[in-house]
Amino acid sequence: MYTNGVGVAKDFVEAFNLYKKAALLNVANADKNALLVYKSMNEEQRKQIGELYLEMYAMLMAYAQAALAQDSLAEEAVQETFRIACEKVDVLLSSPNPRGWLVNTLKFSISNIKSKRRAAQRLMEEYQEAAQLNARAFSEDIVPVEMLYEDLS
Questions:
Q1: What is the pLDDT of residue 100?
Q2: pLDDT at 153
Q3: What per-residue confidence (pLDDT) applies to 17?
Q4: Measured on CA atoms in the order 131, 132, 133, 134, is the torsion positive or negative?
Q5: How many Å is the maximal CA-CA distance in the chain?
Q6: Distance of alpha carbon 116 from alpha carbon 124, whole angstroms
Q7: What pLDDT does residue 32 have?
Q8: CB-based contacts of 49: which residues, under 8 Å, 6+ apart?
Q9: Residue 114 banded pLDDT, cuts 50, 70, 90
Q10: Contact 30, 20 (CB under 8 A)
Q11: Can you tell me the distance from the alpha carbon of 150 to that of 39, in angstroms, rounded to the nearest whole number?
């Protein structure tokens, strides 16, 4: 879900509401994310994550934009970082360096996005190559039609 920080930076209640709206639009994993936001944290944890979000969002977004060169992908990486933070809130908040933990998690999210994009690019290239070979085979008539049907006669 791409929120561009609108409302989400204010509090996780709004994040929950945005995820629920996204779920109504059939956005993948939106329901799961909404539940993670609320069920996984107590009030103090919500407060601490909210403070980290307000403090770190701009820096994480700038880092992701530099690494991914596309705003929507950067937003996706930052959203995934905070989704993981909510899921692993105990690990995050017990870390001696929660800000560093978030940066490392963002790097992991960026790496996953890049891997998925590379895999999609390879698949697209294979598809295009197969389509070109198919077109060439039909245009050059590589196999004579008589050969295809010779065992039928």
A1: 96
A2: 60
A3: 63
A4: positive
A5: 82
A6: 12
A7: 74
A8: 12, 41, 82, 85, 86, 89, 92, 93
A9: very high
A10: yes
A11: 68
Q: Look-up: residue for tokens 């995050």? A: 92
Angle formed by the axes of helices 30-39 and 12-24, nearest 10° = 160
Q: Where are the beta strands (DSSP E) in the chain?
A: none
Q: How far apart are CA 148 and CA 151, in angstroms?
A: 8
pLDDT interval class at 143 (50, 70, 90): low
Radius of gyration of the chain (CA): 23
Q: Which of 28-37, 65-74, 128-137 is predicted with the least confidence, judged by mean pLDDT?
A: 28-37
Query: What's the token pair of residue 123?
Result: 């698949």
Confidence of residue 10 (pLDDT cuts 50, 70, 90): very low
What is the rounded (10 degree) CA torsion for 138, 139, 140, 141? 40
Neighbours of 104 (CB within 10 A): 13
Structure tokens at 108: 């992991």
**Count of other CB atoms within 10 angstroms of residue 144:** 9
Contact (CB, 8 A) for 16 and 38: yes
Q: Can you tell me whether residue 104 is helix, strand or coil?
A: helix
At CA 71, angle to CA 123 and CA 107, rounded to 5?
A: 75
